[in-house]
Design a protein that fits this description.
The complex is a heterodimer of chains A (315) and B (493). With 315 residues, chain A is mainly α. Chain A is built from 13 helices and 2 strands. Helix content of chain A is 76%, strand content 1%.
Chain lengths: 315, 493
């Protein structure tokens, strides 16, 4: 019978698996503590967040007195205008930051790949934004942008280019682009380092051969260099995208998501819902949605990495 | 003539002696309470320095000085906008506590106003809270209503409820039970730069009488001198915003609920009333129409207005009496010509009562902080060392330390602090203190509701930001805020 066959089949597959585990029991014993720690610090919080996302947690009640609302939190999120505003901000923030940081990083890597006097110094200078504390950088940029006595405003007014300092972070239309600039400034060195590492792997003889064959600089880049950097580019873009989806420090410190929610992205909004407004249930529902998005990106990241490994293995 | 028998005389004598003895030992009558009905700068001056207190001896009756224990304690500490003088008093307090109670192992942690609530809430969720906490006045009812706090009244640490402002006691009372003791209470005042007023063609020695005058003066200062007139603050999640906007809202006759009335019920939401909208309109007029306030108001805190004021780039603002000392501290750090400019500003600093609304109503936030003891189940380790907690609470809320810890920026929570020699010294050394003590009777406490922190720190600033950025009209912003409060009170998601 079909059912019996199915069970037998499953049992049939299980037995060799168990045998394999038994044969490698020492290996599993070695990784068991790590798995246990991961279950406690990763699996349980994920489970609890999912559970909490089905409860209402009014600010007047303790968390243990939460009220079950089923998918009520998800419905209220998806029907809330703030959700769409924050999602749009998050997409603009992530796409713009990722794309521009990658392009700038790539361009810098190409420039620094050539040998010239002062290359080491320039490389060290360009890495500074990445190594500087994000909190410190946010405060510095907040003062640079300050709408009344920021440096940029003072210079523009001093040079007669503006009547009054430009409004960078106190306007709903300019705040997000202004924060994206700060984020790109902080992130492009990471892309630069990744792409510089990738450039080291481009075979020099191929470039020389292309040159001998009459390929110009652009053709050498497009047909030789770039194909070799495809995998490292994918990984870099995915890492940047995940980091940007998860960004918190810059928008939170510089504007707290304001003015008027104009710079709220998912993470800052989740933080405010949870810790400022104690809507743990709604914040958890938001977190579950964000988790699904990041897991999707993570899947592509792992696929890109395993693709690299397969290629390396076959080479 | 009344005839008294020997037996009756003995009985009466015994009763009166017992009564006298009990009165003398009763903490409530250790000092005659301050008469709030006589409150005026003159009355405050008349009682200052009239009584001595022995803090260690008083607290020894609550917790013996040789008591051995351990205490974890979080408190809202000094921040960048506070004067150095206050920093020193905080340092002195903990040093004195350790000397007074050498066997109590104290683990204290200072947090800023804007961080404390978030961190404390998180710690409570993980049952990792400290044994005692000093919170902003807004926090008392939130945590009491949720059952995190132990009942605690002034009598538990040797004082009397009458020794504290009734409004302050309201903020630590939930469902008829008292859950904390006020450490300090404050009302702010209106500060202006007389030189800027003069140069702008205004009377340098007269504060704007009404909020409509503030709007006019702000525009006049901006138009004539090209600098910001009024120091508007509209940052979200910052305590400075409600402390500056609510006086304006109440003066116009508005409110979140009916908190500005003598017996508030908090039933009717008033944020969308014409009076509340008029108050919001005044802010809109200054920020959008006249552009007469700092553009950075939406991301600024009061600490950002202080250097603007000192640089002579801001005409007027609402603040503590401590701002005078802050200006002195900042002036000391200035160099070259900046030092002279700062001195000119300090010489021209004037303090006055906060302006009234169109109907002559004057209001100010009755602010301050409270100190509480946590229930053991929410504390790290599951135990609360109550005698140790009471020792620090007794000391902080004593007439001496509640005065010293509020020396420059606030007023003592324990009204007997006004009778100490340090109050007398303070009246002589802290300029403009009279003005802020005069504002105390106009003080209105924030609604004593668990939802108050969200209303004051998020919904009200959001309303301001929505109107000032043009994301909504004034009417829409007020209606939106009223709806948010309604949803919040209804337990909405």
């Amino acid at each position: 019978m079909t059912i019996v066959t199915g069970k037998t089949g499953a049992r049939g597959r299980l037995r060799p698996l168990l045998r394999k585990i038994w044969e490698h029991r020492a290996d599993y014993a070695y990784v068991l503590p790590a798995i246990a720690v991961m279950l406690i610090v990763i699996a349980y919080p994920i489970y609890y967040t999912i559970e909490l996302s089905f409860f209402n947690t009014p600010p007047g009640l303790q968390l243990r007195d939460k009220i079950f609302v089923g998918f009520g939190n998800y419905t209220s999120i998806l029907t809330s205008p703030v959700f769409w505003k924050v999602t749009s901000n998050t997409l603009i923030w992530t796409l713009a930051s990722t794309f521009i940081a990658f392009v700038l990083g790539f361009a810098s890597a190409l420039a620094l790949h050539r040998d010239f006097i002062g290359r080491g110094v320039l490389r060290a200078i360009l890495i500074i934004p990445w190594v500087i504390s994000a909190v410190a950088a946010s405060y510095i940029w907040k003062w640079i942008y300050h709408s009344d006595f920021g440096i940029i405003g003072a210079v523009l007014v001093g040079l007669g280019l503006a009547d009054r300092p430009p409004n960078f972070i106190d306007s709903v239309s300019t705040v997000l682009p202004s924060l994206i600039v700060v984020n790109i400034w902080r992130e492009f060195p990471f892309a630069m380092i990744m792409m510089m590492a990738g450039l080291q792997t481009v075979p020099d003889q191929l470039l020389r051969a292309a040159k001998v064959d009459g390929a110009n600089a652009w053709q050498r880049f497009w047909h030789v260099t770039f194909p070799h950097l495809r995998n490292v580019s994918t990984v870099t873009i995915l890492l940047l995208a995940v980091a940007n989806f998860n960004s918190f420090i810059i928008p939170w410190i510089m504007t707290g998501g304001g003015p008027s929610n104009a710079s709220h992205i998912w993470i800052t909004h989740i933080y405010e819902l949870a810790f400022g407004r104690q809507r743990w249930g709604v914040a958890s529902a938001y977190s579950v949605l964000l988790f699904l998005i990041l897991m999707t990106l993570g899947y592509f990241y792992v696929r890109a990495l395993s693709g690299n490994e397969r290629k390396d293995g076959s080479a | 003539m009344t005839r008294i028998t020997l037996g009756g005389a003995v009985l009466r004598g015994t009763v009166s002696t017992a009564l006298m003895a009990s009165l003398m030992s009763a903490p409530a009558l250790g000092a005659a309470p301050v008469d709030l009905s006589k409150w005026s700068p003159e009355y405050v001056r008349s009682i200052a320095g009239t009584q001595d207190f022995d803090t260690a001896a008083d607290c020894a009756k609550v917790t013996p000085l040789d008591y051995k224990g351990r205490l974890t304690f979080w408190y809202q500490g000094v921040f960048e906008g506070d004067p150095d003088l206050l920093r020193q008093y905080y340092k002195d307090f903990f040093e004195t506590f350790r000397k007074t109670y050498p066997n109590i192992q104290l683990e204290e942690q200072a947090l800023t106003y804007n961080d404390l609530l978030d961190k404390f809430r998180t710690a409570l969720l993980g049952n990792a809270a400290p044994m005692a906490v000093r919170l902003q006045i807004l926090g008392g009812t939130e945590f009491a209503s949720k059952g995190y706090l132990e009942p605690l009244k002034p009598e538990d640490v040797g004082y009397s409820t009458e020794d504290f402002w009734p409004g302050a006691m309201k903020a630590v009372t939930w469902d008829g039970v008292t859950y904390g003791i006020p450490t300090n209470n404050e009302t702010m005042a209106f500060i202006w730069n007389a030189d800027i007023f003069k140069r702008a063609g205004l009377d340098p020695d007269k504060a704007p009488a009404t909020w409509d005058d503030v709007v006019k003066y702000s525009k006049q200062i901006h138009d004539k001198l090209g600098i910001a007139g009024y120091g508007l603050v509209a940052r979200k999640n910052a305590g400075n915003t409600p402390y500056r906007f609510m006086p304006q809202l109440w003066a116009y006759g508005g409110g979140v609920f009916d908190e500005a009335t003598a017996n508030p019920t908090y039933k009717q939401i008033e944020l969308a009333s014409p009076q509340s909208k008029a108050a919001l309109q005044a802010s809109y007029d200054m920020y959008v129409r006249d552009k007469s306030v700092p553009v950075s108001a939406l991301t600024n805190q009061q600490a950002d207005n202080q250097p603007l004021f000192l640089a002579g780039q801001l005409g007027m603002m609402i603040s503590h009496p401590s701002d005078y000392n802050v200006m002195l501290d900042l002036q000391k750090k200035a160099t070259g010509t900046d030092k002279d400019k700062a001195q000119t500003v300090i010489d021209n600093m004037r303090y006055g009562l906060i302006p009234t609304g169109p109907d002559g109503k004057r209001a100010v936030v009755f602010g301050g902080s409270n100190i509480h003891i946590l229930k053991p189940e929410y504390v790290e380790g599951g135990k609360v060392d109550e005698p140790a907690a009471k020792a620090i609470i007794c000391m902080w809320t004593s007439p001496e330390w509640s005065l010293k810890m509020a020396y420059a920026g606030s007023n003592p929570g324990n009204l007997n602090g006004f009778k100490t020699k340090w109050m007398k010294e303070r009246l002589d050394s802290i300029k403009f203190l009279d003005v802020t003590t005069s504002m105390l009777p106009y003080g209105i406490p924030f609604p004593a509701l668990p939802q108050s922190p969200e209303i004051m720190n998020i919904i009200v600033p959001d309303m301001l930001q929505n109107a000032l950025t043009g994301a909504m009209t004034v009417d829409q912003a007020a209606d939106d805020a009223a709806k948010k409060v309604k949803d919040l009170m209804g337990g909405g998601l």
